[in-house]
Design a protein that fits this description.
Keywords: Amino-acid biosynthesis, ATP-binding, Kinase, Lysine biosynthesis, Metal-binding, Methionine biosynthesis, Multifunctional enzyme, NAD, NADP, Nucleotide-binding, Oxidoreductase, Sodium, Threonine biosynthesis, Transferase. The protein is an alpha/beta fold and 814 residues long. It has 4 domains: 2-225, Carbamate kinase (3-Layer(aba) Sandwich), CATH 3.40.1160.10; 306-444, 2-Layer Sandwich (VC0802-like), CATH 3.30.2130.10; 463-601, Rossmann fold (3-Layer(aba) Sandwich), CATH 3.40.50.720; 614-795, Dihydrodipicolinate Reductase, domain 2. Helix content is 42%, strand content 22%. The chain contains 30 helices and 30 strands. The strands form 5 sheets. Strands 3-5-2-1-8-10-11-9 form an 8-stranded mixed β-sheet, with helices on both faces. It has a 7-stranded mixed β-sheet with strand order 21-20-19-18-22-23-24. It has a 6-stranded antiparallel β-sheet with strand order 13-14-12-15-17-16. Helix 2 runs antiparallel to helix 3 (60-78), helix 13 (410-420) crosses helix 14 and helix 15 (474-494) packs parallel to helix 30 (797-812). It is elongated. It starts with a strand and ends with a helix. The protein binds adenosine-5'-diphosphate, aspartic acid (ASP) and magnesium ion. Adenosine-5'-diphosphate binds next to strand 12.
């Protein structure tokens, strides 16, 4: 005998029921006991309309109509016309009884647990009947048997306990006598010794199937559902989750107890006692192997087998000086909860005995609070204990695995992963069996926690980085292009999976929670919502993804001001925007300390020298104990380009214009020509060397005439360049006559910085600086006379984008 169970989604539509038929037909077993759930969604609907009726809300009738029409439509679609009428009349008469029951509840304005069970049992009764008739009509040797005549329970309506001796006897008697090869049995429903309909708890059809399997000594119990087995985490929340091929009863029990809904927790006990294996299979992919649950896991030896979670948890704690050393408080605490019928999901007690803390289901929270406050009213009144504390909106995440006990450091790994991702842990518990480690966290962090833990324990090789990209101009668009090109390589070689979740420019913004297709980002972006930096941040915060990185490719002041918010939410910031690091020292410091506090890297390599590894090198010098004495540098690719191309056969105006057109200057060229850009860069280098300086502390010896500096538009600026051409030619001539070249030099020494145009003699490190190159000379304790030199292209969108890319990879390796 094989016992099979088909869940709600497996029988949710006539099309799915046809799949069930195929599976049964292909099963070579001579006898099959087939337990079915109500059509998907019907149980919820029945419970809802019962509530409505009890509240004397007429809208229960609408729900009832939906229930009627779904069942009738299923009959019409599944059963040949000539056989329909008998079946329709039986179903309609059942529906009439259901209507009468609801009407009764509506009239009295009450719903007893007993009546609720009677009403809700119709879901399974109808589905099992219709499915059995359909199989018969397809010439399968099938019959229907009402589980209420076989499974006997107590009268704990809603979640009744099974009387196994009666049940087993009924089952073996019935199946010995019956001869059909397929018996369709409604799951979830049973009856008391007095004949009242009862139910086995939500999700209880799995349990019904296990009861039959045990009673009939079945060779196997197959649970057919909508996923291909028990996964390493809920596949609806963790995309990378994988089906586990083998798992032990205990592990499966632990996973299901902690929320893996694919198996109703009580299911395992009856079959475990008899050593009957459970196989979880997918009705929609019957060829998949699924998960085999048996006494020995025979698994891969992996320590953690799965990660699950329970939603809607409330923590209840009792504490106070009166607890210390007084025996019996815990006993009374647990007794009170037990008497209130409140089941405890998790227990922690600090060894100081100062408090007891339990996690219970949210729906029990109020009752638990009242009962405990009443039970300890005396101790509370004399202040030996504080009133019970209740914390809501929590969830439990749990690591489960049989072999966890023989591996050290798992909890360390678990908690550091959660900490790194800014998931606050409210309480922890580790089962004495060491089969599970659980943590109570905020419910809004569940998805992030599951995904981070999953990545840590099951995808050790691949780390996912979620990128939120602001600004897709010259640099931003090149950056996206580079990701597109390199993504596969990086995944393969560096084990980093880069996903761009959002893109925004100043007009629109576009989000795709699964990752934006980089082949068509421009179209997607222009189809996006109107840009709004506040909403952009809120959405990222709400998504609450692990390893999130905000990438700022703009030059905007207002965006730089938003970095603290990102960092405070453990979202890393990578930026080529120099504003933040060159603004107030306090702001710069704040960003640095937020980055440390929230474990979120703040990287801005491209602030100086575009893609050249200047800041990173400086950082390494400093952390390894070196001290910077002096920095000399040519840091403006734009000015370098201008002075490398300017001579007596060109005009200053034309060369600057060309630099602007070729993208070597900021959109507003005065920022470069006035030296402001260079000031910002040397300021950042000085700060990164450990000095507290501000922009006012830098001497700027500008070569530009006052009129050019003060011009209020690009046109006026270019006009002024024309006007002062002879002055510029004079600068050139003097330099040439002295056999020198003009370079715009920045210097930091003795805590002070200055910038200005210098005549550089032959042989100097700056003399042969081509095109838009930058060069930095670090004179340090370790490099006192011969400086450490970094030189190369220091401007341009392509190299800047590659610098941003490098920062992202640094975060990936963080
Ligand atoms: P059925 O109606 O067939 O009884 P359920 O909805 O009760 O199906 O259970 C299947 C669902 O359990 C899956 O669709 C999935 O969302 C959820 N689930 C939660 N955790 C896990 C897990 N670890 N492995 C597989 N499924 C899980
Ligand atoms: N139909 C019941 C429920 O939805 C039982 C089950 O499907 O397992 O809870
Ligand atoms: Mg289920």
């Amino acid at each position: 005998m094989r016992v099979l169970k088909f869940g709600g989604t497996s029988v949710a539509s006539p099309e799915n029921i046809q799949r069930v038929k195929d599976i049964l037909e292909n099963n070579k077993a001579s006898r099959q006991a087939v337990v079915v759930s109500a059509f998907g969604g019907i149980t919820d609907l029945l419970l809802n309309i019962s509530e409505f009726a009890a509240n004397q809300d007429e809208s229960y009738k609408k729900g009832l109509e939906e229930i009627e029409s779904r069942h009738i439509a299923a009959i019409k679609e599944l059963i040949p016309i000539q056989k329909q009428s008998a079946i329709l009349s039986k179903v309609k008469s059942d529906l009439n009884v259901l209507e009468t029951l609801l009407e009764g509840s509506f009239l009295i304005g009450e719903l007893t647990p007993k009546l609720s069970d009677k009403i809700v049992s119709y879901g399974e009764l109808l589905s099992a009947f219709i499915i059995s008739e359909y199989l018969k009509s397809q010439n399968l040797d099938a019959t229907f048997k009402d589980s209420r005549e076989l499974i006997v329970t107590d009268k704990n309506f809603g979640k009744a306990s099974v009387n196994f001796s009666e049940t087993n006897q009924n089952c073996s008697q019935y199946f010995e006598k019956s001869s059909q090869s397929i018996t369709i049995l409604p799951g979830f429903v049973a009856s008391s010794l007095f004949g009242d309909s009862t139910t086995l708890g939500r999700g209880g059809s799995d349990y019904s199937a296990a009861i039959y399997a045990a009673a009939l000594n079945a060779e196997v119990l197959e649970i057919w559902t909508d996923v291909s087995g028990m996964f390493t985490a809920n596949p609806k929340l963790v995309k990378q989750a994988k089906s586990v091929s083998h798992i032990s009863y205990e592990e499966a029990m632990e996973l299901s107890h902690f929320g893996a809904k694919v198996l109703y927790p009580p299911t395992i006990q009856p079959v475990l006692d008899k050593g009957i294996p459970i196989v979880i299979k997918n009705t929609f992919a019957p060829q998949d192997t699924g998960t085999h649950i048996s006494a020995s896991a025979n698994g891969t030896g992996k320590s953690v087998r799965g990660i699950s979670h329970v939603d809607k948890i409330t923590l209840i704690s009792l504490e106070g000086p009166g607890m210390v050393g007084i025996p019996g408080i815990s006993k009374r605490f647990f007794e009170t909860l037990a008497l209130g019928g409140i089941s405890i999901v998790l227990i922690t007690q600090a060894s100081s005995e100062h408090s007891i803390c339990v996690g219970i289901s949210e729906e029990d929270a109020e009752r638990a609070e009242e009962a405990l406050n009443a039970a300890f009213a005396y101790e509370i009144s004399i202040r030996k204990l504080k009133p019970v504390q209740v914390e809501k909106d929590l969830a439990i995440v749990a690591l489960v695995g049989e072999n966890m006990k023989s591996h050290q450091g798992l909890s360390g790994k678990m908690f550091s992963t959660l900490g790194k991702n800014n998931v606050n842990i409210r309480a922890i518990a580790q089962g004495a069996s060491e089969r599970n480690i659980s943590a109570v966290i905020e419910k809004t962090d569940v998805k992030k926690a599951l995904n981070s833990l999953h990545e840590r324990f099951f995808e050790e090789n691949i780390k996912q980085l979620n990128l939120f990209v602001m600004g897709v101009g010259n640099v931003g668009s090149r950056f996206l292009e580079q990701i597109k090109q390199q993504r596969n390589y990086i995944k393969k070689e560096l084990k980093l999976n880069l996903r761009v979740i959002a893109i925004s420019n100043s007009r629109t913004m576009f989000f795709d929670e699964e990752g934006i297709s980089l082949k068509k980002w421009p179209e997607l972006l222009s189809s996006g919502a109107p840009a709004d930096t506040g909403q952009f941040f809120e959405k990222i915060k709400e998504l609450n993804y692990r390893n999130s990185v905000f990438v700022d490719n703009t030059a905007s002041d207002s965006i730089a001001l938003t970095y603290p918010e990102y960092l405070k939410n453990s979202i890393s910031v990578v930026t080529c925007n120099k504003i933040a690091c060159s603004s107030d020292f306090d702001f710069y410091k704040e960003l640095k300390s937020l980055s440390k506090k929230y474990n979120a890297p703040f990287l801005f390599e491209t602030n100086v020298g575009a893609g050249l590894p200047i800041i990173d090198t400086l950082k390494h010098l400093i952390v390894s104990g070196d001290k910077v004495h002096k920095i000399q540098a040519v840091l403006s690719g734009s000015l370098n380009f201008v002075f490398n191309n300017f001579n007596d056969s060109t005009t200053f105006h034309d060369v600057v214009k060309q630099a602007q057109e070729e993208g070597y200057t900021e959109p507003d060229p005065t920022i470069d020509l006035s030296g402001i850009d260079v000031m910002r860069k040397i300021l950042i280098l000085a700060r990164e060397s450990g000095h507290q300086i501000d922009i006012e502390d830098i001497t700027n010896d500008s070569f530009l005439p006052e009129e050019s500096l003060q011009s209020d538009s690009n046109e006026a600026f270019f006009e002024s360049l024309k006007k002062y051409e002879s002055d510029f030619q004079q600068l050139y001539k003097e330099a040439r006559d002295a056999d020198t070249k003009l370079k715009y030099v920045a210097e930091f020494a003795d805590g002070k910085a200055k910038i200005g145009l210098s005549q550089i003699p032959k042989g100097h490190d700056f003399y042969n600086l081509e095109g838009s190159d930058n060069v930095v000379l670090f004179f340090t304790e370790r490099y006192p006379n011969q400086p450490l030199i970094i030189k190369g292209a220091g401007a341009g969108a392509e190299v800047t984008a590659s610098g941003i890319f490098a920062d992202i990879i640094r975060i990936g390796n963080f």
